[in-house]
Amino acid sequence: MTRASTKFGGGTQVGDGSFIPDSGTLVVRPDQTKFLRSGTVGLSSLYPQAAKVESLMVHGEGISIFPNAVNVQGYAHNGTGTVVVVYNDATYVLVSTDYGRTWSKIAHNLPGANVGVVWLSGRFILASAATTTTSSDSVKCSYSTTGATFTAGGTVVLDGVAYTGNTSIATDGTRAIICIGSSSGATKVVSTTDGVTLTSRTVPSAPYGTDPKILYNASAGANGWLICASGGVTTAARSTVADGSAWEVVTLPANFANTSGAASGLGLFVIGTLTNFYTSTNGATGSWSNIGNPQIPSTANTSGTAGIAGKLSINFDGTRFVLGTGLSLSGSGGSQFMYTTDFRQFTTRQIIPQSISNQTNLYLTALPAGNAMMFLPASPSSGSSTSYIWSANWLTSSEYVGSSVQFSMPALTSIGAQRIVFGYVRVD
C-alpha cells in the first residue's frame, strides 16, 4: 500500500492513518515514528505532537460516578465551577463545585420532582409545581447563591390543572421564564428576576404537551422567547413583548418530540431531529431553514451519528453549539462529540473508549460547563445512569490522543491462517 503523502514526498505526518497487520497497540518504525492501533489511546503527555492535532484529541479522565442513578433533565452552572443538575427527584438536586467532576446531593426545598434550574443574577433558581389538581396548589421557587443550601422562594397559585410535566427555564440575563407542562397539554408560564417575586404569564391555548422547552434568543428582540411543545407536534408559542407578557402561536418546521433537541445562541433558534437541523432568527412560522444532518451514516447507532436523542442533545456554551454523538455498535467502544457555529461545518472530537451504563439507547449527550465537559447517556424519555465521562478542559487540550474508534480491513476468506489488518494512527 502506498499513501499519497509518501508517493508525493514528505512521508507520513502526525495524525495520518495507516493499515498495518496486527502488531500490538504501539508500532515503532525504523525511523522512530510511532503509530497507535485504533481503538486504543495514549496519554497526551507521552505524545506532545499528537496532542496539538485536533483530530487526535481524545477527551475524558475515565468513568465518573453520580451519587445515585440519574436521568438528567436540565443543568446550570455559574461559570466558576459550581454546577447544579436536576433529575426528576422529589427531594434532591446534584451540586458540583468542581465543574462536574464530583457531586453532592442537596435538598431542593420544593414540593415536586419536576424541577428546573437556571443561573441568574448571582444565584441558582429552582422551580417546580405541585402534582395535584386543586386550585390551591402552586408553582414554587427556591434559590441559592452557592448551591450549598436552597432557600424557599416565591409562590404562584395554579389554576386547577395538574402540571405534572417537566419544568424548563430560560433566561435573558435579567429575568427567567419558567415553563411547566401538563398531561392535558396546557402549560404554566411564570417569570421571575430573583426566584422570590413570581409573575404569571398567559400563553395562547394550544397543546404544549408534558415536556415543552423554552428558549431565549436575544437577537430576536420582542420575539426572543420561544416555547417548543412536546409530544410530536409543531405547536410553539412566541413572545411578542420582550418581558414575556404577551405571546402568539407559531408553527415549528417539524414535529417536536421528547427525542428532539433545541437550543439558542449566535442569533439563532435551533431545533434538531435525528436527520435534520432547523434554524431561525426569530421563530416565526415559515422562517426556518432546513439543514440536512451531514453526520448521519447508514446505521443509527454507529459512532459519529449526531446524537439528537433528547432535549439536552444540543447545548450552547456561549461561543458554539455542542452535540453528542452515537456510541460505537457495541455500546462500549469509543465515541465522539462535535461542535459547530452554523450547523453546516462541524468539528469532531473523540471520547475515551469506555463503557458507561445506559438503559435507554446508544447515544451520549455532551454538557459543557466552562472549559469542562460531561458526557452522559442520552435519555430522551426514560432510563437513568450512575456513570458518565468527565473531561477537564476540552477547548484547548485532551487527556489522551489516538483513535478511540477502532477501524480495520475486512478479514480475508482465503485458505490458511488469517492475520487481522488494523488501522493505526501516527502519534509521533
What does this protein structure show overall?
The radius of gyration is 23 Å and the shape is elongated. It is built from 1 helix and 35 strands. The longest helix is centred in the first third of the chain and has 4 residues, at 4-7. A hairpin with a 5-residue loop joins strand 8 and strand 9 (92-96). It has a 7-stranded mixed beta sheet, with no helix packed on it. A 4-stranded antiparallel beta sheet has the order 1-35-3-2, with no helix packed on it. It is mainly β and 428 residues long. The protein starts with a helix and ends with a strand.
The tally of strands reads 35
Side-by-side strand order of the widest sheet: 4-34-5-30-29-28-27
Beta-strand content estimate = 35-45%
Q: What global shape is seen? A: elongated
Q: What gap, in angstroms, lies between the N and C termini?
A: 21 Å
Helix content: under 10%
Low-confidence stretches: 1-10, 297-304, 328-332
Radius of gyration, CA atoms, in whole angstroms:
23 Å
- From the helix content, strand content and strand pairing, which structural class follows? mainly beta
- The number of distinct helices, counting runs of at least 4 residues, comes to 1
Please render the helix and strand layout as text:
Blueprint: H1 4-7, E1 17-21, E2 26-28, E3 34-37, E4 41-43, E5 57-59, E6 63-70, E7 74-77, E8 83-86, E9 92-96, E10 104-107, E11 116-120, E12 123-129, E13 138-144, E14 151-157, E15 167-171, E16 176-180, E17 188-192, E18 198-201, E19 213-216, E20 225-228, E21 233-239, E22 247-256, E23 261-265, E24 268-272, E25 276-280, E26 289-292, E27 314-316, E28 321-324, E29 335-340, E30 347-351, E31 364-369, E32 372-377, E33 385-391, E34 400-402, E35 421-426
Parallel strand pairs: 5-30
Antiparallel strand pairs: 1-35, 2-3, 3-35, 4-34, 5-34, 6-33, 7-8, 8-9, 9-10, 11-12, 12-13, 13-14, 15-16, 16-17, 17-18, 19-20, 20-21, 21-22, 23-24, 24-25, 25-26, 27-28, 28-29, 29-30, 31-32, 32-33
